[in-house]
Amino acid sequence: MKNNDFKEIKYNNEFIQKLIEFNNLIDINLKESIKLPRICSLGTISSGKSSVLESILGLGFFPIGDGVVTRRPLEVNLYHINSGEPYAIFEERESIIYKDFNKVREAIEELTEEVICCRRGYEYEYIIDRPIILNIYSKICPNITLIDLPGVESKSYMNKYYYNRENFSQFMARRYIEDPLTIILCVIPGNSDISSDYGLQLAKEVDPTGSRTLGILTKIDIMDIGTDVKRELLNETIPFKNGFIGVKNRCKYDLKNKLSLDEAFKREKEFFKSNPLYRKLPDGYLGNEALINKLTKIYFKLIKENLINNLKEKNNIIKEKKEEYYKDEINNKTELLNIINKYSDI
């Protein structure tokens, strides 16, 4: 990915555009007092979490592959700047400025390997609760944080070091998604048993109302013949407040052949448009455009609720301060009257 490839993807990325407009409306003082939501991917191993995040951003620097690829949480902080070329900085490598985003992917892999190098031979069995912090600065980026988590597991696994990967992955994921201002992207492979997906179960535990969780069904293009996820997409089998969106993202083969995100989005549209199982579904259920539109609504609804709660909290503080002021004023007047009376007596 060269510098000039770092741009808004060709379909109308309403989410990114609205966020930039929103950021421009908030002055410096408000930014310090208002906490904005963050977006976190949640799912089992190889569910397609990283592919979903790169589609939302339109930036293809997330490592993607088979098995346990994400072994350290990746926290991506985007910062909007007014001018200049885009660049990235890792907090673990503050002295290095990355302008080639292919190098960013390589650096993520290196930083992961550096931490687990002492466990050589067991690296694909380990996940590490030590996040990689990546800061990206660009004039086409909004101020937002996205988190790519290692896959959660429901089957206990113990290795020779008595490391319980199941409990560790659950604990780490729960710690991230319990934040009430975190939007949970619950990524589920369509070619698996959706009802028993552990990521979905964990999301329901943490967000029982489902108000800040969005279900995303991946890999529906490689499902067995005769099977589909139409009923799940229509919210008929597993009722979910924000429903499910079906997507077709880049795979390892696409990356190997350097398929661009723009081309991947075109192929996704063609797949759903030509597929007899899905082409008759109403708008809003399939594709990354639908995903971004739904995510936009959830994001700004959460901002609105947070602003209302923030305003109520500030009003309560003002009310308390006013009561304290009037109470102090009455006490001061009473004390002054006592002093005058004493002086008069004297």
Question: What characteristics describe this protein?
Answer:
single chain, 346 residues, alpha/beta, Rossmann fold, nine-stranded mixed beta sheet, 10 helices, 15% strand, elongated, disordered N terminus
If you had to describe this structure to a student in words, what would you say it looks like?
- The protein is of the alpha/beta class and 346 residues long.
- The protein has a single domain, classed as Rossmann fold, CATH 3.40.50.300.
- It is 42% helix and 15% strand.
- It is built from ten helices and nine strands.
- It has helices at residues 14-25, 28-33, 49-57, 101-116, 165-177, 198-206, 230-233, 252-256, 261-274, 287-345; strands at residues 38-43, 74-80, 87-90, 93-98, 132-138, 144-148, 182-189, 213-218, 244-246.
- It has a nine-stranded mixed sheet with strand order 4-3-5-2-6-1-7-8-9, sandwiched between helices.
- Strand 7, helix 6 (198-206) and strand 8 (213-218) form a beta-alpha-beta unit.
- The radius of gyration is 25 Å and the shape is elongated.
- It starts with 13 loop residues before the first helix and ends with a helix.
- Residues 1-12, 120-124 and 156-162 have low confidence and may be disordered.
User: So what's the overall shape?
Assistant: elongated
CATH superfamily: P-loop containing nucleotide triphosphate hydrolases
**Biggest β-sheet: strands ordered side by side in the sheet:** 4-3-5-2-6-1-7-8-9
Helical segment count: 10
Range of helix content: 40-55%
Q: What percent strand?
A: 15-25%
For the biggest sheet, the summary is: 9 strands, mixed
Tally of individual domains: 1
Give me the strand/helix succession.
HHEHEEEHEEHEHEHEHHH
